[in-house]
Amino acid sequence: MTDFHHRNGHTGVDKSNTGVDKKMPVVGIRVPSWASFTRPIFKGIVDFIRNNEQWQIQTLVDSTNEMAPVVIDENWNGDGLILFRYSPEEAENFKRRNIPLVNLSAESTGKGYPSVIPDNPEIGRQAAQHLLTLGLRHFSYWGDPSRTYSRQRGTAFEQEILNAGFECINVQFEPDQFPWEGRWLKMHEQIVDELNRLPKPIGIFAKDDMLGSNIIRICNELGILVPEEIAVMGTNADEVFCQISTPPLSSVAYPGERVGFEAARLLSSMMNGKSVAVDHLETISIREIVARESTNTLAVNNPVVTRAVQYIRSVAPMYPIHVSEVAARSQLSLSGFNKHFVQQMGHTPKEEIKRVRLAKVQVMLKNTRQKISQIARDMKFESPEELSRFFKRETGVAPKDYRSKFQPTSDSKSSSDTLGQAHVR
Prior knowledge:
- By secondary structure, this protein is of the alpha/beta class.
- The protein contains 15 helices and 17 strands.
- The two termini are 36 Å apart.
């Protein structure tokens, strides 16, 4: 295993509080400008800078030719780089000049520089868990076998579906095999063929939002109802691709701010002389699914079960309802209600209640700073201890340990009196 050591030598000047001149590092950032889901990466980087140290940032911006262009390629020279993919030629040149670099792409992990990427297997698992709540019996993953991130997401998705007792239909496209001219026509032909072959209703998980949006568009052309016949979800929660779909596309959100923050923290340590293994890999946990109309369905033919599921999902997040309460809203006996529910959903109503309450706790732990005692009160647990026992029984980890996976600890940022400033050029 090789470690990366950075030479000291910066450009730019910063006056520190001690009155001694400190050189301000020049950092290049290159992320895809065409993907809106990558924009939070930059915010995460700036959040780190603002609370830790001053950097002079160079990044590609579309200024309609009113500013001098910034080019970040194999000839770029500075003190550190955060790149979403890089070529072998670039890597060779940066290595030769001892420029530290943090990679943000699963396609470039283990290729000479440390990496910070989202937890792709977890993306696949969360997508499967979401589609499994819809009462579907058929599932399909649509990916690209040439992409590491796609294989990671697809493998985890398929395993989660198999664990639930269902089969997963694997559909693979490799767009790069088609010539650039007319590529979209070839993709269109293949998607049409696959959609016509699939059993329905079915839940499709696409490797990214671009493919998910394309699937919905072609379903509309074919007269296939989304989400009634095909429920579709993608990855990244790219606002553009999700909202140009009709209906809008559900998606697993890309943790851009966390990726950017952790990449900046890692690059800072490298620029300050810390030795980091070139195969160092940090995976960022997934915080949320952005559920939109493309999965707003419940593929259940039994109206009693449909009403029961809707009631559970509306009430259980805030109140620990009992199965007997749900059954009482139907004209069935408790045993008859349970039988119908299991036949339609593949699990018991008690398991559905637990799943809904667990999902609510997970959302609160991931995305808020609320104390566990407050969450317990809001959700009508008898005590914080009861919530903790429930959570650990269902997940295998304590609530505080689960939260720590998603929210940086207080020492990940320095105190506010060390606020820095980002300079962009």
